[in-house]
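User: Predict the full complex structure for these chains.
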Amino acid sequence: MEMKENHREVYWRFNAFHRLIHLVMMVTFIGLALTGLPLKYPHAFWAKGLMFFWGGVKGGGILHRWFAGITFAYFALHLLWILYYLVILKGKLLGSHSMVPARKDFQDLYQHIRYFLGKGSPPLFGRFTYWEKFDYWAVFWGIAFIGGSGLLLWFPEFFSRFLPGFFLNIAYTIHSDEALLATGFIFIVHIFNAHLRADVFPMDKSIFTGKMEAKRIIEHHPLEWEDLNQHPEKKEKRKVRRDLLILFFVVFICGHLPAFSFARGLTDEEIMEAEKKLCWRCHRQPNLNSNEGIAASILLCMDCHGKKDLEKKVNGKPVSLYIDQKEYGKTVHRRIACVRCHDGVASSPHRTLQFHCASCHGYHGEGMAHDPHRTVHCEACHHESKEVMRDPKTRKIVLMKVKDGVPIKMTSHRLANFKDQKACEKCHFAENSLGAPIRVLPAKSLICIECHSASITLNDPISIIAFILFLGGIGANLSLWLRGTIGDPSFSAHEKFSYLAEKIWQAVFSKKILTLLKIVVIDVLFLRRVLKESLSRWTIHTFIYLPFFLRFFIGLILLILSKCFPMSPEIALLLDKNYPPIAFIYDLLGLCVIIGIGGATMRRLHKTFRNRPSAGQDMIVLALLGAIFITGFIVEGLRILLTAIPPSIALPSFIGYPTSLFLGLFPIRWEWVYPYGWYAHAILTGLFIIYLPFSKMFHILVSPMVLLIHSVTDEK
Amino acid sequence: MVGKFQKKVDSLYNILYKRPVRKRHFSQTLIVSLFFIIVGFTQASGTEPLSKRSWFIDMGKFLSSSHGRLSCSECHSDIEQKGVKHPDPKLLGRSSTLLYDYKKCEKCHPQEYQRYLKGAHAMALVQRKKDAPTCGDCHVTHYVISNQSRLELGRWMTEMCGLCHPVAKKTYLENYHGKTAASLGYEASAYCTDCHGAHTCLSLKKKEQALEVCQRCHPNAQIRFTGFVIHASEEGVKKEDVEKLKKLKVIRWIEIGFGILVFVVLTFFYSHTLVWFLRKVHEWLKKD
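Assistant: Here is the predicted structure of the two-chain assembly.
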């Protein structure tokens, strides 16, 4: 009877870390296999279709490299884990629980084969069977070999500096053969062992749940069971949830984004060769997809523009239109046909209508350029010429074509060098006439993402310090919990961390996704619990918190979209803060926060709230938030003022525009003030971020998590 | 000679009308394709099939081709005149140099013609006159269509160059460039003429020359980068090229070594799995 009771017990097999690594490995391995195999067998009937699915070779290549990067990361994490296991947990590398092959494994293999052939009984296995150990070591050596050779192929130019070139051939062979071995092994042997075997069919869930029934341990790992009988551990029912369909669509959409093509392939001399004149030598529509077509179209232009005395008259003064072929041959665009960029120039009047930089190059995200630069033409920054001006009609920054009545020669096709900030200094210098701030400001970084569509970079000292202290604060909080509040107080820190990881794992992979959604909407979005307490408190809370949440949400969605669709003009428009709907929404949400802060301050001034223990903290937070939003609006007003946005566009930013009008009344050189305003806003935000984990405001991050975990784990 | 020509034509015919069968990879393909059979949809290649060389010209296609407005004698010698012999019909495809006057191409394609004269094919023409390829050997002139995409041109040139350089074609298609550019249709990768030059057809035996070519796409490449063997096959490599043969030997031994490793591991575990499976079936049958 006692045995039967025991059989229903469930025991731990893998901890949350191992499960996470396996899950990540599973996704990345399948991803690597599916993006790599079409390249190994490009003639197979499924290869083109599969590559198409990933968005062509370009998309597939990018995904393959991403998966490879994640693989290197979890490999490193695993090595760190081994170190942690050895040093902190005082684990042993050898022994019955170890992955290291021992003599017993070979004996087991021999006995197992005898059993297959009908000569004897199957062997008794310990914690890990010999094929499980082989699985582990196959992956270990596979990552070393495939990863190493893959790195060589990823950066061939770098590695061929100190390795002979034909090592690339060797890397190619190793990468390809090892990949075949890995896929051939995993998709046949591993699938059989873990899924199709009669004992485990349809699947051995222990790697996902981390648990194994006593019955199965007795059956499959009898030696481990003997060992376990002395140390029985936790019991809990298993829960698994996976959803791959979403992944399918995400991959399909993401894969199709970065595909664009370009033609090249002639030497510079070949392009510059000029030959005999014939009617259709020039008048035949050039095929810009072919090398000859590109050469022909360049030749057509060079026929006139290659002559040194070619000039036109602007304002009665001559300006040279001569293009130095040798100089042009050194530029980046030397293998692009002239008419590709100078669109519509092969007609009368002979004038370039528009540059289509965005037909080959993606729009800059926030990481590359600030959004005030959305009013700056590509060539104003990227052209070598230092003369720029604000176009009086469109109010955009363009290249200057005439300076002091003297036309400027524009025939150089060289681009500005952006390796340092010097190229930026053609606008950003003291006493400039463009309204550009006198200092080059850093891009909006990770800490700005809560309110703005920012980049995911950390470039400037403010955001780096803020982010490190923020992480440190979270770490401090975590260590505080681990010391006291989580689980059984007799547990060690490692056991408490495991307990926490387990709770999170259950929350993420529970079947109660609907409950989770409900909690997200009611408790997290609409703050049910606060409403139960007091209506006025809820109103103020909502006024402050919901706009924050919405701005964060909009920023995040736009960030993801801009990474996914770098070529899309629609997304570029949405990223533009001057785009009326976006400007209006951002200002409205900002106004809501200010109203909320005002309300909260009024409430704090009321007697009953003064004596609350957290009143001091509340006032600091309110002061910080108020200062952030006021500086924010001032900076916005300055931006509108300095970039000279016309009222018809600026009006929807109904706070920023009046601010700009008001500030415009003062005869101050605002481009001197703007950087200080910007830095003030950034420093205040940094202080707020740093203050978050050290104050009661940490509940912004913790309460939703706690609510979600509780909703899943405590309802039984 | 005629037999060789027939083989050429047959292979072109096979390439253009039948799907290529790659026996070497068949078994490997079978194993993995079981798992991806769900992804059955394929993209149409988009290349217009070229006609087999024949005495007949499909006038419909010819008239809609780029050369449709030309009269025959504008390229072929003026056989209507007295005293001009009709070319030997047997010559068709063997060497088109004798069927038409390739010098006449210069009239409309001067730049291409001049570049051709500088290239390796024209050098061969000087050395052994009749066999060397001229314009018509690479370009199917009667049905040529202008403004083809880079991909169409690339696939077409892979087949065309491959008729005379089958080893180069084979190795190119096994290389990353060929796999991505020709087979999977990635236009940013390199086709034959992107390295060897359009019409010049350089052999790129010199490292400095090769480096210049590599740097078109790999701007940071150094001289060692050119050590990468793209056409990695010992077939057709001259004995004097000791360095390449040495490299290929190393590559081949590593290939063999890893091939054995893959074979041994997979055979062992596949048979392990199989007998295990059979044992389980056996036990299951015994139960009832």
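The two ends of chain B are 71 Å apart (CA to CA).
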